[in-house]
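Batch 3, record 17
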Amino acid sequence: MPNANYREDFPVYEKNPELIYLDSAASSLRARPIIHAMSEYASYAHANIHRGAYRLSFEATEKYEEVRKKVAKWIGAKEANEVIFTQGTTDSMNHLMHFFEEDDRFEKGKKIVLSIFEHHSNLVPWQQLAKKKGMILEYIYDFSEESLKQIDETTQIIAITLMSNAVGLIPPIETIVQKAHAVGALVVGDGAQYITHRRINVSQLGIDFFAFSGHKCFGPTGIGVLYGKRQWLEAMSPPRFGGDMIEYVTEQETTFADLPNKLEAGTPNIDGVIGLGAAVDYMIYRQVQNNNTLDVLREYAVDQIGELDFICLVQPLKDSDAILYGPIISFTVKDVHPHDVASILDQSNIAIRAGHHCAQPLMKHLELTGTCRISFSIYNTKDDVDALILALKSVRRWLGYES
Amino acid sequence: MSLDMIYNEMIIEHSRNTENRGPLVEKTHHEHGHNPNCGDDIELELNIENSKIKEAAFVGSGCAISMASTSMMIDLIKGNTIDEAQEKVEAFLELIKNERDEEDVEALLGDATLLSNIQHMPARVKCAVLAWHTLKHVLDTKEASD
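Prediction for the assembled complex:
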């Protein structure tokens, strides 16, 4: 079971010791070392980066670029320049959409394949791209051999989550990358949930693009990463124009800077990058990824929730051996709308998420209007699960049903 | 806030009430109302004749608060003139925004006055006002078209 001492890393528990936070898939709580690093930077080390001839600016630039190297090493990129700082996963996906839109190789009649488990951030951009370019948008609903045949010679892009935010499911990404590359398609991976729970090595996996957000892995909001293989990032046209991304500018013409600056116009979110760097250090220090204790906690919660006959676990594809689940659990309470469940649990200081989890097509596919979702991080304990179970037992009574 | 200020008997009863469920056989107006972020989704149906709401009902689904509020509203406006219904909509929306006191609107809104407690649950205000905004839209457009 997770070490309860990790809670001490999170100041929110000092102010609110009763808090039972089960919504880490939406955003992690903020750990003290990250807050400290950001505060230190803002207090003593801030200056605008790049081109500063004075020490403060030079050192800020170094700190900023050190984080790029750190992230690259952490995710297994071949070089730091394959790491582009963005505002988050959504922003990363929109960068990519822009790239595919501008590039004539991605053309009318060719396919974009998504899984039905995608978050809107890895769905709406591709849907809009398909509309703009006349490409065909197709979904796979499971990962059987038969379904993966949809990845065929006409497929150019596959956009897939590595861990579903809505139901916790982990698609067989290695197989998908192999199938995609066998037909010359590119794979875009949404790592927003995966990043904090599993080790990733993008080079070993061979994935073409990989995106994640800082705030779902202990860092601040407004910062994220787009990893891309160098050959693709070099081919990308800049998603934004302005300062920092140029080489020479004349009245009528501009030549662009090399990677990574070409893709990071304007003064970037330096504070966010510093926070992300501290978050990576923290995750390494606490061995957050591949943390067996969270999987054990998930199993415990699934067992406990499974005991309650008025609750239905939402675990699509659970019969297939190839399908694994991360520490995210979706469920419904009989006769009670998920938002009522969330409001009632809130009275016991239990924070869960309710609704469609930015995955409306998945909800429609599962014939649900929404679910209740709990998600774990290293500050959660067995006690949190026990408190949840106890509170769940009273939910139906509030709505006038026998428990 | 105590939870029973919201999830009280009256509201639970109304949330499960099927009497005001449509569809209506005869209707002159219908309007779709939804909260995309939470999935409350209703279709409000009205039969308006000579500026009077002869019949009203709804179809759709949502949380207990949105369902109760919709049902209470329909109880209140059946048989009302457009002007009367409009007065109630204004009163309800002002009550929820804490611009009017409960005592001030109780005669007009009856049981629906209980929903003023939703102010203590800010995330759920949109559930309580959904049906009322939907009705307001119909009445405002109707008025404009008359």
